[in-house]
Amino acid sequence: MKQQRTHKILILSGELGDGHKQAAMAILEASAWYQPNAEVEIVDFMKWTHPHLHSFGKFFYKQWVHRFPGLYGYLFQKTRPDNSFSQLFKKIKMFDLQRMLSLLDEIKPTVVVSTFPSAAAAMSVLKCQGLTQVPTVTVITDHTDHSYWIHPGTDQYIVGSDEVRQALKKYHLSDQQIAVTGIPVKPKFTQPFDRPMLRKKLGVEADRPTVLVMGGGFGIISKELTSLLWSTDYPVPVHFMVVCGRNDKLRRQLMERLQREPSRNTLTVYGYCDHVDELMAVSDLIVTKPGGLTTSEAITMGLPMLLHNTLPGQEQDNANYLVRNGLAVLNSEEDHIESLLSHLLRHPVLLERMALKAKSLRMKNSAYYALHAILRTESKWQDASICHLPALKHG
Q: Helices 337-346 and 348-361 sit at what angle, rounded to 10 degrees?
């Protein structure tokens, strides 16, 4: 009897923002649900290639983006096309080829997936130099295109929408190289929720509008934005759920202020939590930065978005995509965010309209379809039939 083939999926991720890691985790969890004979290993690309410098590099990136956003945005737009300027940046190799080869030799993957652009670049160099033949897949974790994701050694691209698929064609990619699956989000975001039961579990009063406030994994929530939590400009008191991520300083500051200065609104403050799906399920609106993964989770949940603190570059592109498709409103002047939020809460029909738009555009089982595209790419390069995942039983 022929032994069933084992899939060994190596996912190269990174921590410049939480989205790259969350997309990798979504694929890992989808494999446990739908392809239990697949072995999946996630490796932090930056940590592996620069074990002593990766923390400094992450800190430097955060400081650069937030202290010099105009420069970052200029370079983002300048290097978006595949031109001499972007090619110059691609020639700067931020990795060690020998360490990459050691990793491949140690894990022996049947397919390599990159949710981090530098990892896709490294795999491309290895393949173009004939140092490996392993099939490679790149998962683009934003609602936009950029040349830093595009490399000649990549066999398959996974994207969030048909808009991104069309944008990638200017890089001379064929339709067969691009799979539109939605940006992978964890399968738990696709499950049905008992909203009344969850509201009771989380202590959310049924007669209060509920607003989820998030600042990504780093908890980037500006001081101006916290004024929302103490505002009395809303038609009724609001229940705010604030996720501070890894920003423990912000969490402590909010808790201390709440003790000194009680709010008319209800405030629940979280650090880094793993039940964001439940928080989204009971919320009427999310106030967030336009990161690719957080907004994809909100789309999957049919949750309207109020976008703030948008940085030039991929965040601005994400915001433009979401607003253009009617899924979100963008606060361009943060001084007016209170009045904008109040306007939305006073006109719930606007929230209903955004929720319907999100539900009409969402690709609810994105991680499942991304996994299918990954295994299909693997099968094209091996002596095996195309892998068929079990049919979905929900959503």
A: 90
pTM score of the predicted model: 0.90
Q: Is 136 left (phi over 0), alpha (psi -120 to 50) or beta?
A: beta
Instruction: Tell me what pLDDT residue 201 has.
Output: 93
Sequence-distant (6+) residues with CB within 8 A of 67 are none
Give the confidence band of 81 by pLDDT, cuts at 50, 70, 90.
confident
Please give the C-alpha separations between residue 366 and each of 6, 78, 147, in angstroms, as whole numbers. 23, 31, 23
- Alpha carbon 74 to chain centroid, angstroms: 23
At residue 104, what is the residue type? L
Q: How confident is the model at residue 2 (pLDDT cuts 50, 70, 90)?
A: very low
Q: How many CA atoms lie within 13 A of 236 on its CB side?
A: 12
pLDDT higher than threshold 50 for residue 384: no
Q: Categorize the per-residue pLDDT at 376 as very low, low, confident or very high, splitting at 50, 70 and 90.
A: very high
Dihedral angle over CA of 301, 143, 154, 187, nearest 10:
-10
- What the block records as the tokens of 118 is 């530098």
Contact 284, 306 (CB under 8 A): no
What average pLDDT score do residues 229-248 get?
Answer: 89
Phi/psi of residue 199, nearest 5 degrees: -60, -40
Torsion of CA 107, 112, 116, 118, to 10 degrees: 80
Task: Report the alpha-carbon angle 317-334-332, nearest 5.
Answer: 35
**Domains in the chain, please, with CATH?**
7-182+365-380 (3.40.50.2000), 188-361 (3.40.50.2000)
Q: What is the rounded CA–CA span in Å between residue 119 and residue 127?
A: 12
